[in-house]
Specification:
about 300 residues, alpha+beta, Uridine Diphospho-n-acetylenolpyruvylglucosamine Reductase, domain 3, Enolase-like, domain 1, globular
Length: about 300
Amino acid sequence: MYLPDFNFHQPVTIQDALNLLAQRSNAAPMAGGTDLLVEMKKGLRMHDDIVSLAMIPELKHIADDEQNIFIGPCSTHSEVIASGLIGEILPALVEAAYKIGSDQIRNTGTIGGNICTAASCCDTAPVLLAMNASVEIADSGSKRVVPLSDFFTFNKKTILRSGELITRFIIPKPKSGTGACYEKFGLREAGSISVVSVAAALRIEDDTITHASIVIGAVAPTPKISGQANEILIGKKIQDLSEGSPLMEEAGAAAVRDSIPIDDIRGGAQYRRDILKVLVKRAILRVIGGVIYEQERQPG
């Protein structure tokens, strides 16, 4: 398979990229290209113009302020993994990025591309959803900030309009007592696509869960917040969430009720439900254990 002919543009500013997208009716932005170019080779997408974002420094910037972490959408998965800032404050995102593809894919593919592809099995979305992330979206004349929970509309479909780009991800810094993790099940150890994934974020105060966000992946058209599991967890004592406890079983079953799995080449719907229940319970236990460990390390 060969790529079809197209015009290649390499702007060096966000505004130049937005202007190019606005001026050309069949243009597409490209970050790493690990999905876009493959789809074009297969004939699934056709574009007359490709606007590369790789030379725009602002789109690779990782920074923070007192309230938030900001991640440029063209940050590669390897750059996310290597970021000391993300590793210290959002280690679950590093965990998710590390489970994407191979070294070659992580060195080229980007967090923005992973989100914009909007596959139900994308790895970074569950963690970002669990951490209440937002996306800043720009066109040639304006900007808007949208919760990531409103970004996906269906499998491989988003609210992005023609001529728009994600310019950064905005993730609130977790409050004290918050922990998060990412669990993924694939059919092999490396380079696997998620059969089921789960991100869990919990805030624990006085041995009570005061905030919960369980996000399930690859078991619905888009990564999905499990409202039923969250309702079960909030207000519960962590002592009641031990392995095999009735409450833990209930939380896993609630996430399964929120799922809409399908049968495909990687697994059947019931297989996914069974794995999902296990991963939800595993993620909850990991987060609780991690928060307790961090609390015990605090002086005094």
